[in-house]
User: What shape does this take?
Amino acid sequence: MNSAALKTRYSGDFAKSLETAAQPEWLKELRTRAFSYFEGNGFPTPENEEWKYTNVSSFAGDEWSLAADSKQEFSTFVHEESKDKVLVFLNGKFSQELSRYEGLGEAVVLGFGDALAEEKYSDILRTRLGTLIETETNGFTALNTAFIEDGAFIFLHNNPNIDSPVQLLFMTDDGRVAFPRIMIVAEAFSEATFIESYSRASESRYLTNAVIEVSLADEAKIKHFRVQRESHNAFHIGATGAEVEKGSVYDSTNINLGAKVSRHEIAVRFNAEGGEVFVDGLYMLGEDQHHDTHSLIDHRVPNCVSHQSYKGIVDGKAHAVFNGKIFVRENASGTDGYQSNKNLLLSNDARVDTKPQLEIFNDDVKCAHGATVGQLEDEELFYLLSRGIRESLARNLLTYGFAEEVINKIDVESVKAKLDEAVLNRLNAQFLSK
Amino acid sequence: MLLEIKNLHAGIGGKEILKGLNLKVNKGEVHAIMGPNGSGKSTLSKVVAGHPSYEVISGEVLYEGKNLLELDPDERAREGVFLAFQYPVEVPGVTNSEFLRLAYNEKAKHNGDEDLDPLEFNDYLKEKAKIVEMSSDFFKRSVNEGFSGGEKKRNEILQMAVLAPKLAILDETDSGLDIDALRVVAEGVNKLRSSENGIILVTHYQRLLNYIQPDFVHVLAGGKVVKEGGKELALELEEKGYDWVKTATN
Assistant: This one.
């Protein structure tokens, strides 16, 4: 696919969308810049070091059609805890009619159209949109930005204290490309939990290209569970960008089970001292699945703490890529950064490329990182065998336990239960009757 | 005869550690295997339990008259062999009660007994936990994860109680225990001791034998039994040290 052909592919849709959108000039400019970046650069190729192991040529240039209304039956994917606060995105478009707001308390949730119509919210969007995930990161983020239209703006102020999780639910129809875009702004001292879930009703073929930006003010505390369970014929490119201020805590857990090819980029930056960040995740792949996680934790200021723990279970001919970077800038003394990536290979044809990186420009820091790729430990296996447990069951138990260390972190019961079930199904082992 | 080891030569990584070991254990007997570091005590435990890293070079291990060495470790366990580990392994994500119920049901199936469902098993487990004074808080925790040294050893004895083995080998169960934990563990073993099982206590120190009185003491050095006797041998050993048996053999 050459860029000229790509340009024609999206340029008609882009021109039409830009023309019909009732948007302020600054946003149209942002979108135009984004589209021209895309026209000039196209999608990333493996020549780009950041995309060395993830080749998107098998799907990125396909003739995906842009969002249209959807009749997806999504209600079975709504989590019990979130049924009065669920934001529904079908084919990437935020549907105000299908969403439920009763449980949102003081939180403000608006479609971009309504948010831009109010000066206060429009100002917030103008100063933040595209700053936590740079538009020009790559062709995917650029294209998502170029098609900003029916996104959602979530504003937590007056300490809304929403006592149970808000769900963001995404589904995409066969043959479509979806560009969901979300901006979450948490004002000082606000607290909330988000479940960002990508679900499928059938094994259809589509492309999700999602960008979520999360901005935390002083002392805000956000838990963010991202669960990607797309169709096994689908493609998923997602980006999460977050910034934390003084004393705020951003705690993110990223589960990647679905899609044929998926990639998740997560970039977090510390803007003021005393912030704390957790970026944890699990990818569990089989058959010919491919998943790539790229993380970047940017310690720009002193005395912040980051923890990263990613685990991978890779079976069949699947391929996992992990590239995690802790970046400690010159003035960021007192940084405490930890990163680990552990991988379990369940077959001879499975493959993992892991690259934990530390880039440190300050002497007064405490940083550790490490990565492992291997099979189940012989000693662990022997322990289970010595209790009379059969080898196949023993292997499944240990693999399950490996995944559970991440899943147990999720304190939303129905999310955890669904993931337990998914992992057990994947292992073909209903050995635990709960 | 429950266990008969004849002229066993075995080792790990090409290194021979057991060099002609003989041992006989009957039901109803408690045997202590003592010896200095490197004498082959742990190797003996691992070989009987079937650890895949250990190689048997020659000799025989008969369990109830049958060749134990041709069974896989899980088959040995279902036949009634149990090893309490010196360093019990942590199994994150799997709760103690799930783990024990799976093991229990594997063995029950093997013996043609009824499976227990989670509720039935919970009652059974509560009874057994009294033996080692373990509270039910431990049932819901992941196997050995975050357990103290003493809790891990108690958990090993709890597993022994649940699985009711015919032959139990306790590998350095006393190591790393303070005096109170040692007492609890030892009393647990005493309660499980019966005319239906044989117990092998593998230990470096005589201390454990103050609490669990063995019927026989075997002293290992250089990969074989160099001295045998009753429980008084352990006291003599404590007094004179392992150099005494080393000199005795030379």
